[in-house]
Amino acid sequence: MNKADITDFIVNVAILLIFEVIYDFYWIKYRETKKTLMQYASGIVFGTIGIFLCIENIGWYSDLYIDAKTVLLCLIGLFFGFKPTLTAIIMIITYIIFADTPQPFYNIIATLISATTGLFFYKFDEKWIHKHYLKTLTLVAFISHILIFALLPTILDDNIIETMIYASFTILGIFPLATILLGRLMVTNSSQWNTKDKLIQLEEKFNSVALCSDDCFWEMDEFGKVIYVSDNVTKILGYQKNELLGQRPYILIDNIETKNLLLSFALNQNIDKNTIFDNNVVLKHKDNIPVHCNARGLKRFDRLGKLIGYTGIIHNASEQYYQHELLRRNQMQLREQLKKYEDNNKQLQENLNTISSEKQQLIKDKEKAQNSDNIKRVYLANISHEIRTPVNAIAGFLDLILDSSTAESEKNKFGAIIKNRCEELTALLDDILDMEKLEEGLLTINNEIGNIKDMFNELYDFYKSRNLYVDKKNIILSQNVNIDQYIIKTDFGRLKQVLSNLIDNAFNYTINGKINFSCNLYNEGKQLIFAISDTGIGIPKDSIDTLFNRYQINENPISKSDGSGLGLAISKGIVELMGGKIWVESQVNVGSTFFFTIPYNIAQQSSLVDQNYDWKNKNLLIISKDRFSAIYLSEKLIKTNIKYKVISLERSSNITILENYNENIDIIVVDSKLSKSDYSSKISDFINKHNQVPIIALCENEKFKSYNFDNVSYFGYILKPFDGSQINNTISLAFNNQ
């Protein structure tokens, strides 16, 4: 390549750049109009540029007449479409024909191939710029110039191969590359114009929004200086735009809370671009008037995450603020008035309820008084009848005894009957007295220590004999006590009275069948529950609710038997005084079961076997699990005359001391927790070795479990053997009393 070729190359590039400049400043800017006249005018301009590229002293390789118009025509067809391309083709071909240029046929064909290739891609892929422009530019450049290169042999007579090799660098190298580079530049400019158009549109929209809104838009740089503020700032804060530009916003802030909010947002390094400042702030008007505003803003960062400024909106919320304050005050006053109204209404309602309640109570009291009078009248009539019957019988049999004609054997028989009637009369009078005591609240409960099992055995023997020799009914009687400790503290007299009343009723209403009375643990072992069941006639459902009422003599099915009919009412009063409750479950012609509960108070006796056991000068061996219980026992025993020795098995070496212990022992006290320890077998062997010595197993109450040594009681059992399968008696080691 010589100097002339380099000059021609530069000229060609300059002409093509002129084409690109026209595209950049003319076509892109006005392409949206799409007017036909503009398209043809553009074609004339592009045709003129193509003609310049066809001038002989500009084109390359004048002997072959190869020039850069193919680059121009490819891009015209690809970027501008049919009308500008057709106009440019006509002008260039006309020049080729009439200017008598070399190789006109080849130049015309090259012109048509390059223009047609560009138009083909434009037609079938109008949105190629936004999809894969490099691929499209490459295909257009190489397809068109490969076809042009393939036609080169048609104009060569000799040295075909040498000439084609010589021309290939230009046709297949420079021209396609120039097409791609120039097209790439045009695409870039087009994208820039698109971006610029969008920015202009966004700016126009922003200005429109700013003009239509009452809010003030603002922007600050990274140093907190105002670089933009909309015109509405004058309406909101009274300042002109130029008074705020370049200023920091401190001149607008005179409120401590607002300053703290803004500084906290600005100085917080953890705030990202998505964190929005949205708070109510108080700004200062130019006339020093506070303006309540709602401020929204965010930080702006560059692509590297560096802070470049702040932007946001200020909305004048003074009117809403004052309306809110007015509403708040009105609501406060309304709440106060409403509270007064509610208090008055509540007081009025309470008065009405009191009046209504008193009225209803008066009605109930009246009805109750009337019913009570009627019931008492019936009750007194029945009591009178119950009293009159044995009195009349006594009087009649006394007359017979006083009659001299009555035989002595008959007199003895009549005397027994009179005694029986006197006992009935005494029982009736006792029931009446108990009922009166219950009504007056004079009946008392006197707790004492006793054996519940013994009491059950006594009742069982009595009623079994009564059934066998007196009632002579076909009844199977049974009893059972299923509790841990039989020795309890309660009022055994009243308990026996309740049980007797219920068992009597069972016998009165059972002719053939079974009667069972039992005692079990109830309510997690806190209470005892007694059950007296029979297979008698049962009780109708409508009578159960009034079964335990006083004076319900005629209405109670139980009252039809001999007696006062007060037994169930008295039983209910006694059970409730003892801290329990009573109820019944019954089914007609199937039977009834009466239940009642009392507290389960295990008795604490003060001696080992009986009340007269002498602890003084006895030798105790105490086998303790740990030092805590050993220390506590020592503190108790040191105040007594009891000789004792404590062996704590907290250390494994002490088990040897226990195994070799040969001193005299009167009583052995063992911590019950050791029964589940590693030493249980050795302790059992030690106890079996001293099988004549009473054994007491200690257990702690809840306070001792927490090692709170105040008011601790020790309970134990006399155990033979050690596993606790046989419990003979319950005792309390009352060390302080010895």
Write the layout of secondary structure elements.
Elements: H1 3-30, H2 36-54, H3 69-80, H4 82-98, H5 104-124, H6 128-131, H7 133-150, H8 160-212, E1 216-221, E2 226-229, H9 232-237, H10 241-244, H11 256-267, E3 276-284, E4 290-301, E5 307-316, H12 318-402, H13 408-440, E6 448-451, H14 452-471, E7 474-482, E8 487-490, H15 492-508, E9 512-522, E10 527-534, H16 541-544, H17 567-577, E11 582-587, E12 591-599, E13 619-624, H18 627-637, E14 643-648, H19 654-659, E15 667-671, H20 680-689, E16 695-699, H21 702-705, E17 715-719, E18 727-732
Parallel strand pairs: 7-9, 13-14, 13-15, 15-16
Antiparallel strand pairs: 1-2, 1-5, 3-4, 4-5, 6-8, 9-10, 10-12, 11-12, 16-17, 17-18
Helix pairs in contact: 1-2, 1-8, 2-3, 2-4, 3-4, 3-5, 3-7, 3-8, 4-5, 5-7, 7-8, 12-13, 13-17, 14-15, 15-17
- Beta-strand portion reads 15-25%
Order the strands across the largest sheet as they lie in space.
14-13-15-16-17-18
Helix content: 40-55%
- Per DSSP E runs of 2 or more residues, the count of β-strands stands at 18
Give the radius of gyration.
Answer: 61 Å
State the distance separating the first and last CA atoms.
136 Å
Task: Describe the largest sheet.
Answer: 6 strands, mixed
Low-confidence stretches: 553-561, 605-612, 700-738
Mean pLDDT: 76
Structural class designation: alpha+beta
Q: What is the approximate shape?
A: elongated
**Discrete helix count:** 21
